[in-house]
Amino acid sequence: MQVPETFDYERATSVDDALALLAKHGDEARLIAGGHSLLPMMKLRLAVPEVLIDINDIAGLDHIRIEGDEIAIGAMVRHAALKDSALLFEHYQVFRDAESVIADPLVRNRGTIGGSFCQADPAEDLSAVGSALRGSCVITSVEGTRTVPMRDFHQGPYETAVADGEMLTEVRFPIRPGSGSAYEKVERRIGDWAVAAVGAFVQLDGDVVSDVGLGLSAVRAPHYTIPEAEEALRGKPATRENFEVAAQLCHDLCDPTSDQRGPSDYKRHLARELTLRALTRSAARARGEDS
What share of the chain is helix, strand, coil (3-state, %, to 5)? Predict the structure, then answer.
């Protein structure tokens, strides 16, 4: 039976309280909300925090709302709330696509968007979505807040821009009129980590791609994206031929490893095929042809 090392436990009642507890306990303390990523790592002794700071009692971090020209999402919003949000579905259907293939109802009812981004697992679904949408992350410390572009937030496998004594409190996504978005994933079984997955948005001006974003998971795309593929599409007609060019760049420029989920050449093939599918569905949704 796998059990974690012993640890102390604290409950934070506010963001300020959580930051004070982080300062008190130093770099061996970890925040916990849903715990679906951290606790399994603790059982395997891959993470050995000395103190867990429970943030489930903190109010005010569970919002999904429009602020100016952005959608602001509190770090404590659960996966289930993301999946069911009418506001998110109106602007970015990619969230419902992705949340429908994340784990199972138990995980979706307890896991949080902040936990997903801070885990920064190379095969994580929401990190690919966030990178595709070029969102930003609001990081809070006792000195105030700072905002980091999502593509800079993810600094490597299991590494983020959140420093000791800081916490992620909100993520933000720009509203893009005339856009459609989609998420495509291949997994070994329902709810599993991705063998490969691609999120995308396409913004159209007439039938020309005015903006585009791609997020790739589980194929070792730096910061979960392939900017060269995006650049190849901007200003071009939204045709299958142009989507195929971008998909081929994703195939060529990702760097997957062979593992128990499949060989690298298979994952490259999936990166190409899933990119083509995600772009095609995104463009169809931007035209109002696919709900």
Answer: 40, 30, 35
The answer on 168 and 85 residing in a single domain is yes
pLDDT tens-digit readout, 95-125? 999 999 998 888 888 899 999 999 999 999 9
Give the β-pairing of 159-160 and 70-74. Answer: unpaired
* Burial of 57 per CB tally in 10 Å (0-12, 13-18, 19+): exposed
The whole-angstrom separation of Cα 89 and Cα 136 is 19
Q: Which residues pair with 139 in a beta bridge?
A: 146, 168
Q: What's the CA dihedral at 258, 219, 250, 124 to 10 degrees? A: 160
> Where do the H-state alpha helices sit in 211-263?
227-233, 240-253
Which contiguous run of DSSP H or E holds residue 29? Answer: strand 29-32
- Closest alpha carbon to 18 in 172, 170, 169: 169
119-140 residue pLDDT tens: 999 999 999 999 999 999 999 9
Give the pLDDT score at 105: 82
CA atoms of 84 and 96, how far apart (whole Å): 7
**Same-domain pairing of 168 and 86:** yes
**CA–CA gap between residue 33 and residue 49 (Å, rounded):** 15
In angstroms, the Cα distances linking 166 to 20, 25, 35, 100 are 10, 13, 18, 30
Looking at the fold, whether 232 and 132 belong to one and the same domain comes out as no
Instruction: Work out the angle between the directed axes of helices 264-286 and 240-253 (0-180°, nearest 10).
Output: 150
Contact between 163 and 122 (Cβ < 8 Å):
no
H/E stretch holding 185: strand 179-187
Residues 141 and 84 in one domain: yes
Q: What are phi and psi of 237, to 5 degrees?
A: -60, 145
* Domain annotation covers residue 58: no
d(CA 223, CA 75): 20
Contact 175, 71 (CB under 8 A): yes
